[in-house]
Design a protein that fits this description.
The protein has 10 helices and 5 strands, in the order βαβαβαβαβαααααα. It is of the alpha/beta class.
């Protein structure tokens, strides 16, 4: 008889993203996973370094949308704060990392418009040394452009499975406003409900 796989201990995951709706949405998504003990959120590198030193996360999901060619310089302070940390890079604009992941010391990459499932699989793969999946296609630019900045914020949370009350609380909106934004999103994307919207895309490029 073969030996059963040993249960995986839940891990701590750090999210560094200056774009608050994306940061909160990913935090909600990760915190609901049984394999995540705690999701730490940081909007600045300084905060991320402090959290890394204090909690020693297994994985750091780092938004590199504005890092340009200086991704390595962004990661170095986090690596110094907690040497065993594994990086997953994410971008709201670049469809490929600026350099091979191995050269950057990263375990995975989340492209714009990746589905919630793909994001979770990529982070989990980094946490447990599993094979990383291929990211899903991005939402077409014409559809993303049709949404207002607030609608993109609502959708970024909606696709994580957040309820309307949770979205209202995180974005400081009334529940009726959330419903109106959701209705507008469905109409613009040509979908009927949040399930179809989620299949379209889990994360959108940040609004201007």
């Amino acid at each position: 008889m073969g030996n059963a796989a040993a249960p995986q201990e839940p891990v701590e995951v750090l999210v560094l993203d200056a774009h608050e709706p994306s940061r909160l949405g990913l935090g909600l998504l990760l915190q609901r996973q049984a394999w995540v003990r705690r999701c730490l959120l940081a909007g600045t590198l300084e905060r991320a370094v402090a959290l890394s030193r204090r909690h020693g996360p297994r994985v750091a999901v780092v938004d590199v949308s504005n890092a340009g060619p200086f991704v390595a310089e962004l990661l170095d302070p986090l690596r110094t704060a907690h040497e065993p940390v594994r990086f997953v890079l994410a971008s709201r604009c670049a469809r490929e990392p600026v350099a091979p992941l191995g050269r950057l010391g990263a375990a995975g990459f989340v492209a714009p418009g990746s589905t919630a499932t793909a994001i979770l699989e990529t982070v989990r793969a980094a946490a447990f040394d599993e094979a990383a999946p291929v990211s899903a296609a991005a939402l077409p630019a014409t559809e993303a452009a049709a949404l207002t900045a607030r609608e993109r914020d609502v959708l970024a949370l909606l696709v994580t499975g957040a309820t309307n009350p949770e979205i209202a609380r995180e974005l400081h909106l009334g529940r009726d406003s959330v419903k109106k934004h959701a209705t507008a999103i469905y109409r613009k994307l040509g979908v009927r409900n949040r399930t179809e919207a989620t299949r379209h895309a889990a994360r959108l490029p940040a609004g201007g």
